[in-house]
Write a structure and sequence with these properties.
Pfam families: ABC_sub_bind (PF04392). The protein is about 45% helix and about 20% strand. It has about 325 residues and is an alpha/beta fold. It has a 6-stranded parallel beta sheet, with helices on both faces. A 4-stranded parallel beta sheet has the order 7-6-8-9, with helices on both faces.
Length: about 325
């Protein structure tokens, strides 16, 4: 009898100890769950080559690495702003049976969403996901798409422009007529600017081929040029700066890398940080989280950035109230 009781006691202790070891693994955060990343694939589709989107892609890689997916296979394709290529490349990434797809910029995310309704898609650098018809509700994605939105703080940008140029009366907004994101940003900027007593003149271009002639017209009619988060304009931004500088007209972009390229100033989102957030969201899905359980993240970490060389070339003095809190590019 004593031996039987001893055996029961030993068995009970074994069960308790085993439970203590297994329970934390069952109840722990999915982040701690080991995943064999060597057997996983991430398909990335970038809209076009330019510094801002390139930085986002680097950030996606770093975000995945930070979350323990250093060895995940990344299948990267770049559509170079060609819609037919985006469609073909989207189908290619779907056929590769990637575990998650990442669309860098709105046209890429839209193309991926049109190519599959089953493979999870993480969008990066999409300013208006609802307007782009990628999701119907930011808080509750209802399909296979979620991601990181970089909705631009128009009010802060407009305030920065007015601080630097107190006499600002007219602003030319340069954007692509083919990008849904740009149209919504322009409408929002125009509404805010006109409420502040600033006239807005829209300059829409169908392609990069018309940028030079359009900017040449604009600089003769406005005090400054504003460019929203627009991939077509970003891909030809040095041309914009070259023409505007000749006319001594400042350009206020919406991206930090475009200030580095010669834009005067912006209240900008760090594109690499945006990419990191996108990569980390992709990592959640690789661990098994469902898209419908991952709300769209509205990336709102912004900081003023000014280009001191551009200011000097344009003969513009940056107020101390702006300079003291801003990052500087020389």
């Amino acid at each position: 009898m004593k031996n039987k009781k001893l055996l029961i006691t030993i068995v009970a202790l074994v069960v308790i100890i085993a439970g203590a070891i297994v329970a934390p693994k069952l109840s722990g955060d999915k982040k701690d769950k080991p995943v064999d990343s060597k057997n996983l694939q991430v398909g990335v589709l970038q809209f076009v080559t330019h510094p801002a989107l390139d930085e986002i892609y680097k950030g996606v890689q770093d975000g995945l690495s930070d979350e323990g997916f250093k060895d995940v296979k990344i299948n990267f394709l770049n559509g170079e702003a060609d819609q037919s290529k985006l469609q073909t490349m989207s189908k290619e990434l779907v056929s590769q049976k990637n575990d998650v797809l990442v669309g860098i910029a709105t046209p890429s995310a839209q193309s991926l969403a049109n190519a599959t309704d089953s493979i999870p898609i993480v969008m990066g650098a999409v300013s208006d996901p609802v307007g782009a018809k990628l999701v119907s509700d930011l808080k509750k994605p209802d399909k296979n798409v979620t991601g990181v939105s970089d909705k631009f703080p128009i009010d802060k940008q407009l305030d920065l422009m007015r601080q630097i140029l107190p006499e600002l009366k007219t602003v030319g907004v340069l954007y692509s007529s083919s990008e849904d994101n740009s149209k919504s940003q322009v409408a929002e900027f125009k509404k805010a600017a006109e409420a502040a007593g600033i006239q807005v003149v829209e300059y829409a271009v169908p392609s990069t081929n018309e940028i030079t002639s359009t900017v040449e017209v604009a600089v003769g009619k406005v005090d400054a040029i504003y460019t929203p988060m627009d991939n077509t304009i970003a891909s030809a931004f040095p041309t914009v700066i070259s023409v505007a500088n000749k006319a001594k007209k400042p350009v206020f972009p919406s991206v930090d890398t475009m200030v580095e390229q010669g834009g005067l100033a912006a209240v900008a989102i760090n594109q690499h940080d945006l990419g990191v957030a996108t990569g980390k969201m992709a990592a959640k899905i690789l661990r098994g989280e469902k898209v419908v359980d991952i709300p769209v993240e509205e990336f709102s970490q912004v900081k003023p950035i000014i280009n001191e060389n551009a200011a000097k070339e344009l003969g513009i003095t940056i107020p101390d109230s702006v300079a003291k809190d801003a990052d500087k590019v020389k």
